[in-house]
């Protein structure tokens, strides 16, 4: 019985923040993250489409390809700042809907919080808990 590793996550141009976490995990599992992070020399090509795809891109190294994707899909510092402003505003305006379950509401909160964290901002668990508790509808009091 042989083990076939899963294929690398495919980036379609959408949901960069999710893809980047999956791809980093994939590359770490394949012992290739050092190639990207430290611009190390990649191992000789074998039947590994991930490295081949990275080399095909118009970059000289996997690290440069990774940085280009990061720049293009995460945006500039100015873009990230604007995204953070919008996400903070979204977080502050979140309220539980009458038709929503606690699980659905907490999922909505965590989606926003995770987006904020992916942009590099610290966001405490106590702030999340406070948001949940203070925005429940009256029927939960």
TrEMBL record:
Any Pfam family matching the protein? Retrotran_gag_2
Question: Which ranges carry the DUF4219 domain?
Answer: 11-37
Q: Kindly give the InterPro entries that the UniProt entry links to this protein.
A: DUF4219
Query: What protein am I looking at?
Result: DUF4219 domain-containing protein
